[in-house]
Amino acid sequence: xxxxxxxxxxxxxxxxxxxxRASQLDVAIDSRSTLPLRTGRSMPVIGLGTWxxxxxxxxxxxxxxRRGYRMIDTSGDYGTQPAVGEAARRSGVDRxxxxxxxxxxxxxxxxxxxxxxxxxxxxxRADLVxxxxxxxxxxxxxxxxGLIRAKEEGLATDIGVSNYTADQIDELVEATGETPVVNxxxxxxxxxxxxLLDYCRERGIVIQAYSPLTRARRLDDETLAExxxxxxxxxxxxxxxxxLQMGIAPLPKANRWDHVAENxxxxxxxxxxxxxxxxxxVNERFSVLGSLPxx
Length: 295
Ligand SMILES: NC(=O)c1ccc[n+]([C@@H]2O[C@H](COP(=O)([O-])OP(=O)(O)OC[C@H]3O[C@@H](n4cnc5c(N)ncnc54)[C@H](OP(=O)(O)O)[C@@H]3O)[C@@H](O)[C@H]2O)c1
Known about the structure:
This protein is an alpha/beta fold. Helices cover 38% and strands 14% of the residues. An 8-stranded parallel β-sheet has the order 3-4-5-6-7-8-9-10. A two-stranded antiparallel ribbon has the order 1-2. Mean pLDDT is 92; it is low at 1-27.
């Protein structure tokens, strides 16, 4: 049986992905698959992170696009935007097929910052612009209004947030009527939140997982190693697949080209329900940054 048929049969069997939690993914996925956004548009299921992607950034991003990555995550403060833009142009991949994500800082004017980011990326629009993190006080309604303006003027096709709690998202929505399409947060089996997942699913907000590989700090975990061995995959691939099966878009970063390739080779296996439950249970709110920014 070929892979597509196997995947379809898994669905037909009614196997709930995510260890009993309904998944947003209702089609067999591959590297070109997308997740629906609440605006009616869609976003690739996996992307390349570029924080500290400092080794020949443009070459690495170009190689990633050639290999099939279709989403690149950057930010005004990563220093990688010019190289990301250059790689997107050099790759030969149609601009409409590349999904560029960037972010504005919480102490900036969000609209002006979006314009500056576009200048660095070298394009007329970004596919998704996020508030990088909430400001020290409040949820950042003014920032959100700046991004709404950027969206209305076509500088950002979609807008969202990063490092937001459910309450902070509620505050933005109550003040403006505009719901973020994405909340980008640190997310791995070792640190995630069933409550935030339910909140986002109920509102059609897609979670993007940053530091999905725990910056390689938990790759030697015993449970993870056992699950990986069961499928003949690496621990990193299992971490990414766990996210995909939850309907969450992981953003693994890799300087090494073998890592870039390995992290996209996650579409030829499916973690079974029992293994998903085992992975869900290793949650200890682990964070590479010290603590998870959400409840
Ligand atoms: N919104 C936010 O506040 C926020 C915060 C942090 C990160 N992010 C975004 O999320 C992206 C990913 O997060 P991250 O960079 O913190 O960490 P990560 O993706 O969890 O881990 C990156 C590390 O894992 C290594 N690695 C990659 N693939 C591997 C593999 N297959 N096997 C073993 N090791 C592997 C990389 O090594 P090599 O580089 O040597 O290949 C690198 O050291 C960032 O780049 C950024 O775009 C967003």
